[in-house]
Amino acid sequence: MEKITQQQIIEYFKKSYTAADGLWFMKTEEKYDFDTALELDAKVWEVMPKIQARMLKPLADSGNKLKDLMECLRAKFSLEDFSCTIEDNTDSGSFSIIISSCHWHNLLLKSNRENLSAKIGSLICEREYEVWANEFGSDINFKIEEKICAGAGNCILRFSL
In this structure, is residue 94 part of a structural domain? Predict the structure, then answer.
C-alpha cells in the first residue's frame, strides 16, 4: 500500500463518522422504530456539540464570545461539508448563518429518506445549535428562521445576545 496522505486520512475519518451516525440510526430504527431512534439520536446530539465546541473553542479566543461562537461554527460547517455564508453583525450583538447546502439533508436525499428530513432536522438542529450557543454563554439566544428540510431554499440560523 502506498503512503496515505493527510487528506486521505481526513476523508477516511469524515466518511467513517458520517457512516457510523447513519448506520447507528438505521439499526436503532430497525430494532425499535423511527420515533425511538430519533429520540435517542436527539440525546446524542445534546452531547456531541459540547464535545465539538470544547475542541474548537480554544482556537477562537478573541475575547468576544459571540464572535468566537461564529468562528467555531464557521470551522464546523467547513469541516462537515456544508455550504454556507455568514452575516457578521457581532458588533451589534448577532450573527446569522445561511446554509445553502446541508450535508445531512443531502445524505437523506441520497438514501431516499427525504420524507424524514424535516422531522429529523427540526428536532436535531434545534437541540444541536442551542447546545452550541450555551457552550459560549447562557445569554446567547438561538433561533432557526428557515429550514431546507422544511422546503426553504436555505437554513437560516440566528444567534444573538
Answer: yes
